[in-house]
Amino acid sequence: MASDPLDEFFDSVSARAHRSPRKLTKIVRTAYPIGVPALILKSSTDRLGEAAGYSFHLGTPDENLRRIASWLITSAGNSQENLLKMVKRLWKRHGREDVALAALLLANIDHRHLGTNPWGELAKNISKKEPAEALLLSIEELLRAGRPLPDNSIINEWCRSRVVDGHLALLVLHAGSVRGEIIDQDVIEVLKTVKIPPGDSLLGRIKSRLVAP
User: Domain residues for 115?
Assistant: First the structure.
C-alpha cells in the first residue's frame, strides 16, 4: 500500500511546533505543494494570484487544505488559542492558500470555548483592501460550517466603519439572502450608505440587489 506524502509530512512535525503560531505558519507553507502533481500551472496561478491581490497562489486543491486544517485543529486539541493567532499571520502573508486555510480554521475552531466570535475575528484580520474572492471564500466557509449570520448590530458597525468592512457586510448579507435569510429594512437602509469603488461591478450588482425596493 502506497504511503501518503502529506500524512508522512504531518508525522514528521514535532508536537512542540504546535505551540508556536509562527512556526506553524511556516510549516503549512511547506505543506501546500506536498502531493500536488507537479504544479505544472504554477506560473499561471502566480499571475492569477497577483491579479487577484494575493501574494502567491500555488494551486493547492481544496481537499489538501481541508486535511491541513483538520490536522492543525486535531493536534491543537482544547488549546486552540494559537490557531487564532495563526489566522492573523496567514491573512498577513496573504497567499491564496493562506486565506483559504484561515477561513477553514475560523469556521471550525471552538469559538464557544475561546469566547470569540468568528465574524468578529474575520473582520479584525482583514486589511483595508481585500479581493472580493477572499472575503467570499471566508464567508462561504463560515456558513458551510453552520455559523449563524452576524446580528444586525455587527452589520451596522461594519457599515459605519472601514470601507472594506462595509463590503464585508454586503457580501455576508448577499450570501445569507441566497440561502433564504430575510434582511431587516433598517439594515437595508444602512447598506445604502456603503461606498462602492468605481468600476466594481460585482459589489455594485450585489448592493443594487440588496437595497432594491
Answer: 1-129
